Amino acid sequence: MKKVLRFKVVMIVLTIVIIIITLFLSAYIHILRKNRINRPPKIGFAMSTLKEERWFFDRKYLIDTAKKKGFEVEWTNANENDMTQYQQVKYLLAKGIDLVIIVPSSYDSAKNAIELANQKNIPVICYDRIALDANIDAYVGFDNKKIGEIMAKYLLKQSPSGNYVFILGHPRDYNTYQIREGYRKIITSYLNSGKINILLEDYCYKWKKEYAYEYVAKLLQAGKQINAILAQNDSLAEGAISALAEKRLAGKIPVVGQDAELNACRRIVNGYQSMTVYKPIKKLSELTIEISEKLLKKEKLPFTKNFINNGYKMVPAYLIEPIAITNRNIKLIIEEGYHSYEEVFGK
Predict the structure, then answer these.
(1) How far apart are CA 291 and CA 269, in angstroms?
(2) Range 217-223 contact pairs with CB under 8 angstroms and sequence separation of 24 or more
(3) Is the pTM of the predicted complex or chain greater than 0.90?
(4) Mean pLDDT across the chain
(5) Are 289 and 332 members of one domain?
(6) How far apart are CA 59 and CA 74, in angstroms?
(7) How many domains does the chain have?
(8) How does DSSP classify residue 299?
(9) Among 33-37, 198-202, 325-329, which stretch is predicted with the lowest mean pLDDT?
(10) Is the domain of 270 the same as that of 302?
(11) Which residues have CB under 8 Å from 235's CB, separation 6+?
(12) How many alpha carbons lie under 13 Å from residue 262 in its C-beta half-sphere?
């Protein structure tokens, strides 16, 4: 009888304890949910690199625009390392972010990091670079094919015939292939007719300008005549121009790049670089935050006629038009506040 009584008492106590714990947990979860609802939306900005000058502008404009909307931003920089980016996205998710904006370190490996967000039903935007075979909600970037077209058209006006050098970016950056597709579309008829010849068309691992320098230096050492150089960004253009300068050819051979880096703008003013493709990063950041706001509010995304098949699905793409900058319209960079007059002209 005593054993039965003790058993009943123990069961009653356990039941009370379980009820108390359950009530406590329910209250705690309610508080967490309430705090999550009341706090500002938090965006995780998983960057690939800060190596090039332009990425500092991307970070500044995106964070400033987000703050104006009342959003918080946690950002990371993977230094172009896939595993680092995976761990950083994991970290951002652990910090309770509500949306991921990712600049993929590589188009094929970023899907692993994106899957972490998918598992938590966190929306994902690919910024400037797209990830393949990944479930992303939107892609916001520039019209990379048009960038390639702009570059090729400009060079053909400067050098309608002769030996061309094409210095490509990172082989695991999908932008590299889109830019190539763009310039190939323009030069194909010139190649077929024999008007131009490709001396070199090769990649620069992780966009390192040392490769660009080496490619051009070796061609010149071999006695090859170069009539035009298309470099897929201004850093690579700098590497190529450095090699030309050693042979006193800087300014004598047209060289184009992209990003409108300050040093590239200065080279244009001084006649060493012919053209750069300006990509209005402020507009890109503003558009990205606009798309972010729609996703956070679970609203319908703005209309777009552009979609990219990334191997997983047709991704709505929001593309901003690039602009060719030469010594004739270099002041546009100043008017848009990207660089100051004093920075560009040194006065």
Answers:
(1) 37
(2) 217/243, 217/246, 219/165, 220/244, 220/246, 220/247, 220/249
(3) no
(4) 93
(5) no
(6) 11
(7) 2
(8) P
(9) 33-37
(10) no
(11) 51, 52, 207, 209, 212, 257, 259, 261
(12) 16
